[in-house]
Structure formats: C-alpha cells, structure tokens
Amino acid sequence: MLKRIAKYVGYAVLWCAMVAAVVWAESLSRKHDSTQVVCSTEISISGGGMYPLIDDMAISDWLKRHTMHPEGKTIKSVDIAAIESMVESHSAVADANVSIAMDGGVEIDIVQREPVARLRVEGYDMYITTDGYLIPTTEGFAVRVPVVTGRYKPLFGSNFTGYANEMARDSLAALEEHIVALEEMKLPHYNRLIENNAELRVVMRDRAKKGIFTSDEEYEILNNAYKERISIAKARHNSNERAIRGDIAALDAEQEATRHQQDEVHRQATEFSNMIAMLTFIRDNTFWNAEVVQVEATGGGTEPLQIAIVPRSGRFIVDMGTTEGLRTKLETLYRFYQKGLDRVGWDKYRSISLRYEGQVVCR
C-alpha cells in the first residue's frame, strides 16, 4: 500500500515539475520576445520570369511606406500575419510567407507574378500576367514582353488592378441582381392588372333589374344607364391595362437590355482570356517568343476584339482576325513561314491574313 502511495506521489511530483518547467520556459520566451529586437530582414523573391517587376528594395520600401517594416521592433510587437497581408497587397506579389527566428532575423519569401504582355492602349498602361492579373506599371522596372497596342477598349477601367475574370464575374453578378430586381418591380403592376379586372367585374355585375312594379320605360332607362356605365368602365379598364402593360413592357425591355449587357461582358471576358492564352503560348514557345514584337488589338466594347501581330521578320503585319482559334492560326502561320516565305522571300508581302480558318491570304 505504501509503495502504491509513493508511486502516485512520485507521478504527482514529476507532473508538477514538468508544468513548472513549461511555465518557466514560457516565461523566458515571453521575456526574450519582449527584449529581443529584430536586427535583420532577408527578402527572397522567386517567379517573375527573366525580368522581375520588383526587388527586395521595392518590398522593403513598401513596408516602410506603410509603417510595417519589422526592423527595430521587438519580436513580440511584430505581427507576422499583418506583414504577410501587407506584402501580398502589393500588386506584383502573388504569395508571401513571413517567419521570424529567435535571434531576431525576419525572413520574407515572395512569389511574384509573371507578366506576359504590356497593355498600352489609349489611357491604359499595365502588365497582363499569365493568370489574367492586371498590374500597373512600376517606375524603374521595365519588363521585356510583347506590347499590346491599338484602338482597343478593355472591359476593365484604366486604374483597375486585379483579376480580369473576377472583375467580369462581379459585373455579371451585378447585372443578374439588376434583372432580379426588375422582375420584382413587375409585381405591383401585375397586382394592378388583377385590381383593374376586378373593378370591371364589379361594374358588370351591377346589372339593371326589372322589378314587379317597374315599367318597361323605367327598365329601359335603367338598362341604358347600365350600358353607359359598362361602356365607361370598359374604356377606363382598357386604358388602365394599356398603361400597366406599357410599364411592364418597359421593365421587360430593360431586362432584355441588361441580358444583352451580360452577353457583351461574357464575350469581352472570353476574348480577353483568349488573348492571354495566345500571349502565354507565345511566351512559352521559343520561336514565337523571339518572333513576336508587338500585338495590335482593336475593338472591345460593342465591337469584337481583333488581333494582329507585328513579327520581327519581314515587313508585314499578320492579321489574326478574332480571338477564336488563335493558337491554331499561329500554327498555320508557322507552317506558312516554313513552306511559303522561305521560298518566295520575307519581303514580298506587306500583309498576311489568317482571318479565315485554314487560309493564309497574302498581299
């Protein structure tokens, strides 16, 4: 019995010692974090291709500008999550991870976005990334990617930063909400139609009745009065119905116009995605990456997006037409380069059109 008691007492003492050790270590850790000052910040950046949009100095300045730079602060006062969030708020950063060591060294690992083109149409100057993210140009950083120029009106505004597809999705959702709101606005008008019909039925039920002592002449007067009331009631009913249905038709027309806007947004978003796919293909293809100097874009808004490319070879411009099947058109053009231009010469033509599937039209 005494052995069992001693055993339990030993367990209790050991447990208390462990708890005391943990509390003591925690106390030392809190004291260390309260006194240890962050002495260094190491920023490592990956991604971005051959020509990055940012460097460690740009990120350091970004943190200082927003009073989030950790150096000089104690470990306890450094909010790692807040620093990560601030770094990721930089338009050129795709992802960030921040860690802090016991000696006060902070490490910030960054994955930056990779642009595939620079959009420089009227009022716009921004980079387009492989995943459709739009980044404003940064002073001091120029990326050697194809430039998209021309009379092109993008779906998004000139100051927009973010994913183009998310912007299109939000626009479509807002338009859908408007369509639903318009449908709800029809309900009072439908109720008015019901009330209008009910009012006519009340008048029609109030027929002239011939009593036992009612003469034919009196009944005729009553019946004529009834017919007059019916005539007036029907005219009022028809006038009200035309007005009500006109109001409903106006809401129908607005809904139809909104659905047309949805179609336009969807079309423009699809066209822009197709152009990004072509630009990504150009970047990833050794031949086209070296060959394509510039992309000319026209249309947008209510007009379909049209694409032309300015190659490094020859003195011609290649009209690609709409954004449908752009990769196939490039493959067709490559075969024409090999089997056609190599034979007739690169300076023979001023324009090449791949507007029609499977056809190469030269002038």
What can you see in these coordinates?
The protein has five domains: 1-35; 40-112, membrane protein fhac (Ubiquitin-like (UB roll)), CATH 3.10.20.310; 119-163, no CATH class; 167-269; 274-362, no CATH class. The chain is α/β, with parallel strands linked by helices and 363 residues long. The chain has helices spanning 2-35, 56-65, 80-88, 164-205, 216-284, 286-291, 326-344, and strands at residues 40-47, 93-100, 105-112, 115-119, 126-129, 133-136, 147-149, 152-153, 162-163, 292-300, 303-311, 317-321, 351-353, 361-362. The model is unreliable at 19-33 (pLDDT under 50). The protein has seven helices and 14 strands. The protein starts with a helix and ends with a strand. A hairpin with a 5-residue loop joins strand 11 (303-311) and strand 12 (317-321). Helix 4 packs antiparallel against helix 5. Strands 4, 5, 6, 7, 8, 9, 10, 11, 12, 13 and 14 form an eleven-stranded mixed sheet that branches. A three-stranded mixed sheet has the order 1-3-2, with helices on one face.
SSE blueprint:
Blueprint: H1 2-35, E1 40-47, H2 56-65, H3 80-88, E2 93-100, E3 105-112, E4 115-119, E5 126-129, E6 133-136, E7 147-149, E8 152-153, E9 162-163, H4 164-205, H5 216-284, H6 286-291, E10 292-300, E11 303-311, E12 317-321, H7 326-344, E13 351-353, E14 361-362
Helix pairs in contact: 4-5
